[in-house]
Design brief:
11 helices, 8-stranded mixed sheet, 6-stranded mixed sheet, single chain
Length: 351
């Protein structure tokens, strides 16, 4: 649901004098809401993040209330770890972009939206009368007033509204659309699902062991390949419903690592938390996966992804969670399990 968005500071001051003739306050709120729901601000380096913040502080064109709103918003994004250095090629300076040929260095860097000042947009794309230029399949350019009209953002918005993948959908497609964009930005991943370990335990006993990896090993494989170095993964699930699931976290960790024989990649720590839902009847029913401050609730659970294609006729239904209150609710669910009377937890550093 998240897109890399790079913004030149002057694009924000354009909002006060937008040729779209909209209210400055409303236009800036629209940009912030779009960023909060569907974007991370990306830069070439930490120094460039500092330069961006300094430019907002010093801008003579932003009125004091507008400047304060932007600085508070940037603080919020920083707390959510969505001011990201090293997501643009080293040495690429968006503010120095003067022609379309200057974009050659962005090849192969994933979905990105470049938000330019209106003068800069006219200079780089002189024959475009609109406020959006679809440069390549993964890269778009726009002005601050046109951010909501970029097709890649519009597609994320439409997908969030749909909240479902149909039966027969390749689970790789689900990974690419839902999980990969969040996994590559977050060093903390938490999964809560009462029945998460059941299929793994059955396969460890030789049942269906010839099949492709079930949902948990499949997920760990993809997180290892995609997550940044230093990622910690926490798995919160249950025992007691499936007799083969160990009741002690240490034994479960051994089981997982026995089945998961791939490289841990960017994952440096794996933690499991086990609880008995039968004894603790007030534990959460709904399942979720959380990537730091963003996540999804999974109505039917992660095991809809246990096969290469979604096997249930109802497919996979989910709800995207991006605002602070919603994602904090997900974290609180994990805490409820951790504080239950039957809990067992263990973490292990990976080589």
């Amino acid at each position: 649901m998240i897109v890399d968005i790079a913004i030149v500071p002057s694009a924000l001051t354009d909002l006060a004098f937008s040729r779209l003739k909209r209210s400055s306050v409303a236009a800036q709120r629209t940009v912030r809401e779009t960023l909060l729901a569907h974007g991370s601000l990306v830069f070439a380096s930490d120094a460039e993040i500092g330069e961006f913040i300094a430019a907002i502080k010093k801008s003579p064109l932003l009125l004091s209330p507008e400047r304060d709103r932007w600085l508070n918003f940037l603080t919020l994004l920083n707390q959510q770890k969505r001011l990201l250095p090293n997501f643009l090629p080293s040495g690429f300076k968006l503010c120095d972009l003067n022609s379309e040929s200057d974009l050659a260095g962005l090849n192969g860097t994933g979905e990105k939206v470049l938000v330019l000042s209106e003068d800069q947009f006219d200079r780089v794309f002189p024959n475009n009368p609109d406020a959006v230029e679809e440069i390549r399949a993964e890269i778009s350019a726009t002005t601050s007033g046109g951010l909501g009209e970029v097709s890649v953002i519009d597609s994320k918005r439409a997908l969030a509204v749909a909240g479902a993948h149909a039966q027969g959908t390749d689970r790789e497609h689900v990974w690419n659309e839902l999980f990969a964009p969040l996994a590559r930005r977050s060093k903390g991943v938490s999964v809560l699902d009462r029945y998460m370990f059941s299929e793994l335990a059955r396969r460890d006993s030789g049942i269906h062991s010839r099949y492709p990896p079930e949902h948990l090993i499949w997920l760990l494989n993809h997180l290892a390949a995609t997550s940044p170095v230093g990622t910690r993964v926490r798995l919160v699930g249950g025992f007691g419903d499936e007799r083969r699931v160990p009741e002690e976290a240490t034994q479960l960790l051994d089981l997982i690592l026995r089945q998961w024989n791939a490289s841990p990649g960017g994952i440096i720590e794996l933690e499991v938390t086990l609880a008995n839902w039968r004894v603790n009847t007030d534990l959460p029913h709904n399942r979720h996966i959380r990537f730091g401050s963003l996540g999804y609730t999974l109505a039917e659970g992660l095991d809809r992804l246990r096969s290469p294609r979604l096997w249930d006729e109802d497919g996979l239904n989910w709800t995207y969670k991006w605002d602070f209150e919603s994602t904090q609710m997900l974290a609180n669910r994990e805490t409820r399990v951790e504080q239950s009377s039957t809990v067992s937890s263990m973490r292990r550093t990976l080589p």
